[in-house]
Amino acid sequence: MTDDPTPLLKRLKINTVAAPDIGLVESWYTEWLSYSVCERGEISAGLAGSWGTPSMTGRPYIVMQPESGADVFLRVVEIDEVAGYKPMTSLGWNAFELIIDDVYKLNEKLLSSPFKIIGEPSPLDGDLNFIHAMQVLGPAGDVLYLTCDTVRAEDSMLPLPGSFIDRPFIVILAGNGVNKTQSYYCDKFLMKREEDMTSPIGVIADAQSLPKDHVFDMGFMFLGQAGNFIEYDGYGDQYGARPQTDGQLPPGCSTVSFSVDNIDLFDLDFVGDAVTDPSAAYSGGRCRTARGPVGELIELVEGP
């Protein structure tokens, strides 16, 4: 028997939120989540073209980091407001998950914040009951899962937080069911095919006007480096593509960027050419963006 291959997506590099008011996102994240701005600029024509979104050229953006200084970035880019966008009712990237030191203390803090708490802290079900999580809604329809490991065993699959609120470590992807999503990432990126699960997911049920105990198909895929994951959730067939303005990024939790060794090795549905962008978030590496199986934008960034 041979060992499983190492997944070609190594780790999370950039999570992008697309927002009509990036200043509002900045103020909420800096004051309440202790993120700091490490770069400001405007999207270049080359980068906008690599995303397949030419109307993003010249749009302002900021890059933010957690207090720990981890080089996993949150990027906020300006888009026009999109009528009809409602979080967790369309396919694609629907939430970003941050590792937290103590989710109960954070909940107490956020009670007086402008973030809307859409899921109070609680343990996961079954064998994962050592993981406790809450969920909040941000100013751009951006959904954050805020998660801590209450045991922190040496063999824990969760990363240790380097600050009270640390880096993204999971990105959440919605598709119609889970088979198409998992098959794509296993085939294209050598992700290990894990056993699917079923679980109530209260925040999604609320968003979709379903009973709180409605059970969703879902699962996890491990990236190449420990402490980095994709969660995939199964939505009903009535849910489809996210509304967005032509030529711009989709609203809310918009795109996810992953570190890879060589973007030329991938046979994907690329939406633009490879570029080298001077943003610190890319660490000098080339980047190129593909469209995934449910329309999600997957940005590949060369580097560690």
Summary keywords:
14% helix, 304 residues, 2,3-Dihydroxybiphenyl 1,2-Dioxygenase, domain 1, mainly beta, 8-stranded mixed sheet
What does the model show?
By secondary structure, the protein is mainly β. It has a single domain, classed as Roll (2,3-Dihydroxybiphenyl 1,2-Dioxygenase, domain 1), CATH 3.10.180. The protein contains 5 helices and 16 strands. The strands form 2 sheets. Strands 2-3-4-1-13-16-15-14 form an 8-stranded mixed beta sheet. The two termini are 29 Å apart. The mean pLDDT is 95.
CATH first level: which class? Alpha Beta
State the distance separating the first and last CA atoms.
Answer: 29 Å
Helix content: 10-25%
For the biggest β-sheet, the strand order reads 2-3-4-1-13-16-15-14
The major pleated sheet works out as:
8 strands, mixed
The best one-word shape is globular
Mean pLDDT comes to 95
CATH architecture tag: Roll
The number of distinct structural domains comes to: 1
CATH superfamily: 2,3-Dihydroxybiphenyl 1,2-Dioxygenase, domain 1
Protein topology:
Blueprint: E1 11-19, H1 22-33, E2 36-42, H2 45-50, E3 60-65, E4 73-78, E5 92-100, H3 103-110, E6 116-123, E7 131-137, E8 143-149, E9 165-176, H4 179-189, E10 197-200, H5 202-207, E11 215-222, E12 229-235, E13 252-260, E14 275-276, E15 286-291, E16 297-302
